[in-house]
């Protein structure tokens, strides 16, 4: 398919040390498209394996818009079985990793086996090889990246991944880490210190340039009109830390262990970061929004999830301490959300999880859609597969009543399908706060040279979600695992009443009926 290097994959057997390339079938590429969908398709036959089994693959994929001028479209997707949640898990990262994978002529990398000693997977124009990495083993992510020197892009684990900490992350060159789900532990179990791309970024071919130019113009117009992305109070102006005040106003900023927030967010909100550091905007490889905040010395400041995890869920008010903890997490290669959750649990509190994955710092008592989304997420306790915050807080694409469960089963199923389609394109989730599937289908059609409709993208997204849910079922998960910690049904927080458990269960049952009917 145009834009995805013709669907080429390199399969790596760490046990034998062999690497070989093959062409993915047209049927797989058409059905999965790329990104998250392709990762789910390639992982499907391995559902019964232990997450840390040598035979359990780890899959890195890009989408069909990678390498095009579409902003925020060159993200990489890492898919595996989470050792923390035991579910299928997909994580995305920006930066040059995706374009450099395209530069290597690849759509995907699939790694299996376990090396006899630590190794790196190196990919260059001359091919791919496994090289010894004993000198890298034990290094933090920052030191490992520095020792690698100048390369096109890299993804490495830190000591946490090497020690198979269940919430270990994978750090990447100039992009967000593959943070949640513990896929760094999977790399560590395989004795794979990192993936190094020595190729440069590539530009994808576009089949219909006039059609692409028109579709891109429509997309950019919607970007410019988005208050959330480029408005004076949006994330371009203040970074994702702008969400701190917004979500506190809505009662969604959690306090310690999801009790009422009683801290002082003004010590670590967007204004505090601006006053203390005077940071500049920064973004991923092809980002026009630049939601990150970078200090003059190159330090990347924490984003909302890290700020609220440590400042809200852990109850810390010291900005310097929060930044230090985030820096330590990046260097060691651990997910800050799960790390903070573990520290709370160590202090005697029960971890707040869904399917074993620690909940991120968004309180579902402020959003019935979020409550349902946490429960139904095929990745465990994640808000991203459905991302109802877009409609219930940001009011996009249409506003929904965040305090009512009415109709939320269908809404969440629709959002899961649409967002999975966005993830198959490997587009940043923030882009979908401004554009809809009509614009994305027009862009894909122009790149691929064949017609795609919004309905086509929904079908691809739905198939991805169905494959993920089927994978989980084969791992032993049932409808009973689609649930929330009981605290949300019995305790109030931030002036909001507990969730109505009866209505939650009714809407959850409706969601299961919808998904069952779609599988017929």
Describe the structure.
- The protein is an alpha+beta fold.
- The chain has 21 helices and 15 strands.
- The chain has helices at residues 26-32, 35-43, 97-103, 141-148, 159-162, 183-189, 209-224, 227-230, 235-238, 242-249, 270-277, 304-313, 319-332, 336-346, 368-376, 389-392, 408-425, 437-448, 454-474, 487-490, 501-518, and strands spanning 8-13, 18-23, 58-61, 76-81, 88-93, 108-112, 119-124, 127-132, 153-156, 171-172, 192-197, 280-282, 292-294, 353-354, 357-358.
- It has a 6-stranded mixed sheet with strand order 2-1-6-3-4-5. A 5-stranded mixed sheet has the order 8-7-11-9-10, sandwiched between helices. The chain has a two-stranded antiparallel sheet with strand order 12-13.
- A hairpin with a 4-residue loop joins strand 1 and strand 2 (18-23).
- Helix 17 (408-425) crosses helix 19 (454-474).
- The longest helix is centred in the C-terminal third of the chain and has 21 residues, at 454-474.
- Mean pLDDT is 94; it is low at 1-5.
Largest sheet: 6 strands, mixed
Indicate the radius of gyration in whole angstroms: 21 Å
Number of beta-strand segments? 15
Low-confidence stretches: 1-5
Shape: globular
Beta fraction of the residues? 5-15%
Structural class: alpha+beta
Helix percentage = 25-40%
Work out the helix count.
Answer: 21
Mean pLDDT: 94
Distance between the termini: 29 Å
